[in-house]
Amino acid sequence: MLKGKHIVLGITGSIAAYKACTLIRLLIKAGAEVQVVITPAGKEFVTPLTLSTLTRKPTISEFFSQRDGTWNSHVDLGLWADCMLIAPCTASTIGKMAHGVADNMLITTYLSMKAKVFVAPAMDLDMFAHPSTQQNLSTLQSYGNTIIEPQSGFLASGLEGKGRMAEPETIVDTIEQYFQHQSSLKKRVLITAGPTFEKIDPVRFMGNYSSGKMGFAIAAECAARGADVTLIAGPVHLPTPQNVHRIDVESAEQMYEQATKYFPESDITILSAAVADFTFEQKSDSKLKRTHDNLELSLIPTKDIAASLGKNKKANQVLVAFALETDHELENATNKLIRKNADFIVMNSTQIPGTTFQSDDNQITIIYRNGECKAFEKKSKKDVAKDIVNALEDYK
């Protein structure tokens, strides 16, 4: 899986930097080309000469390697690479990556990277457990980076706990699995995500609690497996996953227009958005004022995106619907599956605490047209996305 792959290996100032030598040998043995970018602090732990000898490439550390006008282009590295691996990655570098502090060659290379990025943290247990580090790691994950979890064990400080960089064999295996998955979903995938807002007047709207996290996680997973992903997003404040074409909309009508526009050319369509069923018959051009009388607003149905796409679905297209239920979950979701002419439907329930709207977790059941149901345990939406995409790969 790594034969001919271009890998940028970032090395930072950690005692675990010595493991980078083994990591390089394993990557090259698997057929990869490796270009090292090391921070100034990293050179205190492993020498550029050693790294260059192993990679057969000059080790890059500074923007300007000579005083003759030549320089190292982080942009070129971002275009050359099939993936970037930062191992070991210190708490300092993690913080800089999360907040775009481009003060060395490694960070500028990361910010210019067009390919997948893997991060293998290495630090003392208290540093790893600190809320700021955990928040920065969550931020990096939200950008589409993969965190290769550190191990528990004896640390350089003499303490024992979680913070040891994952072993080189584990890291290489993770990257190989990524490239194996990357080529497994060469499809055009259309995804809707988030809520829709239906305007009442210039300052008020009717909406729902959808965060868009589930749809964005699915988009990231599809893109990671090689799909050409178009994501139609309602009004949410989430970073766009890597290699995803994002279209922002606000209303159900706008989402309908974009979904019907891109659907004919899509191989797979996943409708995870929480689209409003009703909109206002009349929308005021000026702010509605409080009066002593009750305010009456007339609602009319919105266009049914799932039903419209299901009606026009071709034999070679796959349509996945979502059903968020409050009661009679299986019955209602199965009925929706048939009505919308979906291939399968992802059901979740508001009755399970800590899932669905605004949560980072979800618990789903996938229902197929033949009546088969597959229930899953509660897990992170990132892992739920993997279950859904696995179901797609099995279905096709």
UniProtKB/TrEMBL annotation:
<dbReference type="InterPro" id="IPR003382">
    <property type="entry name" value="Flavoprotein"/>
</dbReference>
<feature type="binding site">
    <location>
        <position position="277"/>
    </location>
    <ligand>
        <name>CTP</name>
    </ligand>
</feature>
<feature type="domain" description="DNA/pantothenate metabolism flavoprotein C-terminal">
    <location>
        <begin position="187"/>
        <end position="393"/>
    </location>
</feature>
<dbReference type="InterPro" id="IPR007085">
    <property type="entry name" value="DNA/pantothenate-metab_flavo_C"/>
</dbReference>
<dbReference type="GO" id="GO:0004633">
    <property type="term" value="F:phosphopantothenoylcysteine decarboxylase activity"/>
</dbReference>
<comment type="similarity">
    <text>In the N-terminal section; belongs to the HFCD (homo-oligomeric flavin containing Cys decarboxylase) superfamily.</text>
</comment>
<keyword id="KW-0456">Lyase</keyword>
<dbReference type="GO" id="GO:0015937">
    <property type="term" value="P:coenzyme A biosynthetic process"/>
</dbReference>
<comment type="function">
    <text>Catalyzes two sequential steps in the biosynthesis of coenzyme A. In the first step cysteine is conjugated to 4'-phosphopantothenate to form 4-phosphopantothenoylcysteine. In the second step the latter compound is decarboxylated to form 4'-phosphopantotheine.</text>
</comment>
<keyword id="KW-0460">Magnesium</keyword>
<dbReference type="InterPro" id="IPR036551">
    <property type="entry name" value="Flavin_trans-like"/>
</dbReference>
<feature type="binding site">
    <location>
        <position position="322"/>
    </location>
    <ligand>
        <name>CTP</name>
    </ligand>
</feature>
<keyword id="KW-0479">Metal-binding</keyword>
<comment type="pathway">
    <text>Cofactor biosynthesis; coenzyme A biosynthesis; CoA from (R)-pantothenate: step 3/5.</text>
</comment>
<comment type="pathway">
    <text>Cofactor biosynthesis; coenzyme A biosynthesis; CoA from (R)-pantothenate: step 2/5.</text>
</comment>
<feature type="region of interest" description="Phosphopantothenate--cysteine ligase">
    <location>
        <begin position="189"/>
        <end position="396"/>
    </location>
</feature>
<dbReference type="Pfam" id="PF02441">
    <property type="entry name" value="Flavoprotein"/>
</dbReference>
<keyword id="KW-0285">Flavoprotein</keyword>
<feature type="domain" description="Flavoprotein">
    <location>
        <begin position="5"/>
        <end position="177"/>
    </location>
</feature>
<comment type="similarity">
    <text>In the C-terminal section; belongs to the PPC synthetase family.</text>
</comment>
<feature type="binding site">
    <location>
        <position position="336"/>
    </location>
    <ligand>
        <name>CTP</name>
    </ligand>
</feature>
<dbReference type="InterPro" id="IPR005252">
    <property type="entry name" value="CoaBC"/>
</dbReference>
<keyword id="KW-0288">FMN</keyword>
<feature type="binding site">
    <location>
        <position position="287"/>
    </location>
    <ligand>
        <name>CTP</name>
    </ligand>
</feature>
<dbReference type="GO" id="GO:0004632">
    <property type="term" value="F:phosphopantothenate--cysteine ligase activity"/>
</dbReference>
<feature type="region of interest" description="Phosphopantothenoylcysteine decarboxylase">
    <location>
        <begin position="1"/>
        <end position="188"/>
    </location>
</feature>
<dbReference type="GO" id="GO:0010181">
    <property type="term" value="F:FMN binding"/>
</dbReference>
<feature type="binding site">
    <location>
        <position position="340"/>
    </location>
    <ligand>
        <name>CTP</name>
    </ligand>
</feature>
<dbReference type="GO" id="GO:0015941">
    <property type="term" value="P:pantothenate catabolic process"/>
</dbReference>
<protein>
    <recommendedName>
        <fullName>Coenzyme A biosynthesis bifunctional protein CoaBC</fullName>
        <ecNumber>4.1.1.36</ecNumber>
        <ecNumber>6.3.2.5</ecNumber>
    </recommendedName>
</protein>
<keyword id="KW-0511">Multifunctional enzyme</keyword>
<dbReference type="Pfam" id="PF04127">
    <property type="entry name" value="DFP"/>
</dbReference>
<dbReference type="GO" id="GO:0071513">
    <property type="term" value="C:phosphopantothenoylcysteine decarboxylase complex"/>
</dbReference>
<keyword id="KW-0436">Ligase</keyword>
<comment type="function">
    <text>Catalyzes two steps in the biosynthesis of coenzyme A. In the first step cysteine is conjugated to 4'-phosphopantothenate to form 4-phosphopantothenoylcysteine, in the latter compound is decarboxylated to form 4'-phosphopantotheine.</text>
</comment>
<keyword id="KW-0210">Decarboxylase</keyword>
<dbReference type="GO" id="GO:0046872">
    <property type="term" value="F:metal ion binding"/>
</dbReference>
<dbReference type="InterPro" id="IPR035929">
    <property type="entry name" value="CoaB-like_sf"/>
</dbReference>
